[in-house]
Design a protein that fits this description.
alpha+beta; Creatine Amidinohydrolase; five-stranded antiparallel beta sheet; 4 helices; 15 strands; 26% helix
Length: 248
């Protein structure tokens, strides 16, 4: 899993270098696929079709501005100065998965966009810091929510982090909030154990948290058009604290 995570990190770095006004999201997808194949890895997203979703047609998800997650790369989707773009990559390597995401500015962006990205990264770091023995999934979720709330942002409630291992989505689910009420009964509050591996992925929203899935069956946007940001790392629970697996 550490090697799978390292490959994902390399793909992130190559895409980060290419982000600029005039670049298409399809071009970024091609960069990521090339990195994965050059390292004998295969994309997890390509062909993925859970539930009633159509097969996902790309290596990455590329979500621009008010697109929260699952944006489909396209030659016609060209980045503009001032956009922000969330890029998510997951790969299989020798039977194991690495999964991570980041949001990046396109050229010069507004102060509000920069603040949203910084707050989302801070929420991820807070959740990682809470990923220690003696805590539970609810502690990780609360750390994310508290960090977001302090910065004045909403969190996506319908979409969560998740266990990662031999499959891209395993137990436990790792939500970005926790109320302890019956509305969260579908999310089991696991006690953290050494050896657990999961992806933490806070998704912060500058406006209201109401979301809409587009007709393509994948892209999720904010109903009010407000900006969103998304950061994710795959983390292992160890006796010595959290180990981030998706770093270079």
């Amino acid at each position: 899993m550490r090697e799978a995570g390292r490959i994902v990190a390399i793909a992130h770095e190559e895409m980060r270098r290419a982000i600029a006004p005039g670049v298409s999201t399809k071009a970024l997808d091609t960069i990521a696929l090339t990195v994965l194949r050059d390292h004998d890895a295969e994309p997890c997203f390509l062909g993925y079709a859970p539930g009633n979703h159509p097969p996902f047609p790309a290596t990455i998800t590329a979500s621009v501005n008010n697109e929260l997650v699952h944006g489909i790369p396209s030659e016609s989707r060209v980045l503009d100065e001032g956009d922000i773009i969330g890029l998510d990559v997951a790969c299989f390597y020798k039977g194991y998965v690495g999964d991570a995401a980041f949001t990046h500015p396109v050229g010069e962006v507004s102060r509000s966009a920069r603040r949203l990205m910084d707050a989302t990264k801070a929420a991820l770091n807070a959740a990682i810091a809470a990923s220690v023995l003696g805590n539970s999934i609810s502690d990780v979720a609360k750390a994310t929510a508290k960090s977001a709330a302090r910065a004045g942002y909403s969190v996506a409630r319908e979409y969560t982090g998740h266990g990662v291992g031999r499959a891209m989505h395993e137990e436990p689910q790792v939500p970005n909030w926790w109320s302890g009420k019956k509305s969260q009964a579908q999310w089991q509050d696991y006690e953290l154990q050494a050896g657990m591996t999961y992806a933490i992925e806070p998704m912060l929203i500058a406006g209201r948290s109401d979301l809409l899935e587009l007709d393509d069956g994948w892209t999720v946007v904010t109903k009010d058009g407000s900006l969103t940001a998304h950061f994710e790392h795959t983390v292992a629970i160890t006796e010595d604290g959290p180990l981030v697996l998706t770093l270079p």
